[in-house]
Structure formats: structure tokens, C-alpha cells
Amino acid sequence: MGNAPVVIVTGGTRGIGLGIAECLAKEGAKLVLCGRRSAEDVQPVVEKLEAMGAEVAYVIADVSSADDRKKLIDETIERFGRLNVLINNAGVAPNVRADVLDASEESFDRLMNINLKGPYFLTQAAANCMVEQKQKDPSFEGRIVNVGSISAEVASVNRGDYCLTKAGIGMATKLWAVRLAEFDIDVFEIRPGVIATDMTGGVKEKYDAMFENGLTLQKRWGTPEDVGKVAAAMVRGDMPYATGQVVTVDGGLMMHRL
Ligand code: NAD
User: Fold this and answer.
1) Domains in the chain, ordered, with CATH?
2) pLDDT digit string, tens, across residues 109-160
3) Are 56 and 31 within 8 A, CB to CB?
4) What stretch of H or E contains 258?
5) Is 162 a catalytic residue?
């Protein structure tokens, strides 16, 4: 992108979202991060990213709320005057890992709202904003990146609700890639494997043992930076002629072996 891109990273103040934000900060992006914590709480993160070269705005916004999604887009335009890239990263795991024979509708609804409905309608709002910009300025470049998961394909029966949301994201990537192609807005998806963040903190020992026993080809935890580098390539335009594609960042976990 010619000018520094204006990039929204949902849930961009910790974990994978922060890994993405750091990689983009090094390239001088203008970042809009959203999350549910107070501005005071995230101030050290904002300062770190600014020191790395980014301009940063933080918006308190819950992606499952329609009002908050509107606020996020409005504040982005107010602050930076445009929006080039939306990175749908925010997501949650179930509060309790429950067998599909027992898991609650309450958990199902919570995950659907945050992991699937939120990014789907945030994409709709961002896409309309990008299309409007493209119509005013044919040189405008827009992109959308979804952070899905290998759980779109790998069945974990103790978090079926989570897997369903990520399978849904897989279809959302296709739908938006098809719909936005005429506006040259690329849509990509990253499917991380097992990444060391707060989300996986509670199952560290289980996965440590699985890595040891050959879960992946590359025998280590993935890092937020691994995902961030791939996202930065997408934002930079280094994935040309490939809209709609999924990049799996899993150290080879998904590779069938015999
Ligand atoms: P994390 O829990 O460390 O961070 C999640 C971030 O999303 C936090 O900043 C949190 O505040 C934010 N968030 C949560 N709910 C939100 C909401 N309703 N509105 C706005 N922000 C919200 O998790 P992570 O591991 O960094 O996960 C990031 C994404 O990557 C998620 O979509 C997750 O499903 C996906 N993912 C993670 C892994 C992994 O192994 N960690 C693997 C595959 C996919």
C-alpha cells in the first residue's frame, strides 16, 4: 500500500492480536485496536506499539455489540480519515470445555455472538466503508483478514461450539472474497494451530506433552509473532492474486502422515 495503511485489529492488545499489531507497527501502520479493557489498562501496550513506529488508537468495543461495531468504524474514520484493512482477530474459547453431549446453549450463543456474528457484521460494516472509499478513489486499497482456526476442520468434542464458529468463519471468508472481488478488496484467512497465548495458558502441560509426542512437524508452540508475520504479508499486499485463500500457521499439525 502506498500510504501507511489504516488497520483495525480486533482484540489487538494481547495474544495473537498483539503479535499482529507488533508486526504491523514495525512497518509504520496506523492501528486501531479494540477490546473490552479500559484505556488505562492498555496504555502500556499502546505506548510500546507507538515506540515501534505505529500511530495507535484504542477503542473500547465488544465485537458482539452492534453499537460497538459502529463506534469502532466511526472512530477509525474520525481519527484517520480512512480504513484500509480489517483484521477480525478477537475471539473466545468456551468458559468450560464441555463434552458435546453436555455443553450448554448459553455457551453456544456466547461463542456464536463473539466469534462468528461479531466478525461477520463487522466485516459488513467495514466492507461498506471500503466500497464507498473505492468508489471515490480508484487507487484505494482495502483488505480483510479473518483469524480462524484449525478448529474449522479438526473436531474437538470438548469444545464443539468453538469449532462450529471457526467453521463458520471459513465460509465467511469465501462469501466476502466473492462479494468484494469486484472492488479489488482481497479477503484472506489465517488458521493458527496451537499458539502460546492466554487462551491456551490453561492447557499448557497437555499441549507440551503433545508437542513432545509429535503433534506437529515443527516441534514447538506457535507464537503470536508467527501469525503476525503472515498477517503483515497479507496487509502489505504480498499475497497477490490469491483472494479467498486460507493460510494455515500450525507447524504442520494438519499434515496427514502415514
Ligand atoms: P486471547 O484470549 O489471548 O486474546 C483474545 C483477545 O480478544 C483479547 O484481547 C480479548 O480482549 C479480545 N476479545 C475477546 N472477546 C472480545 C469481544 N467480545 N470484543 C472485543 N474483543 C474481544 O486469545 P488469542 O489466543 O490471542 O486468540 C485470538 C484469536 O485467535 C481468536 O479468534 C482465537 O479463536 C484464535 N485462535 C487462537 C489459537 C490459540 O492457540 N491461541 C489457535 C487458533 C485460533
Assistant:
1) 6-249 (3.40.50.720)
2) 999 999 999 999 999 999 999 999 999 999 999 999 999 999 999 999 999 9
3) yes
4) none
5) yes
Span from the CA of 134 to the centroid of ligand 1 (angstroms): 30
Pocket lining: 91 vs ligand 1, CB cutoff 6 Å: yes
Is the C-beta atom of 248 inside 6 A of ligand 1? no
| DSSP annotation string for 210-245 | HHHTTSSSS-S-B-HHHHHHHHHHHHHT-STT-TT-
In the reported structure, the alpha carbon of residue 115 is separated from the centroid of ligand 1 by a whole-number distance in angstroms of 9
How much of the chain exceeds pLDDT 70, in percent? 99
Mean pLDDT on 12-20: 98
What pLDDT digit, counting tens, does each position of 176-207 carry? 999 999 999 999 999 999 999 999 999 999 99
- 64 CB under 6 A from ligand 1? yes
- 173 close to ligand 1 (CB < 6 Angstrom): no
Rounded Cα distance between 234 and 244, Å, is: 12
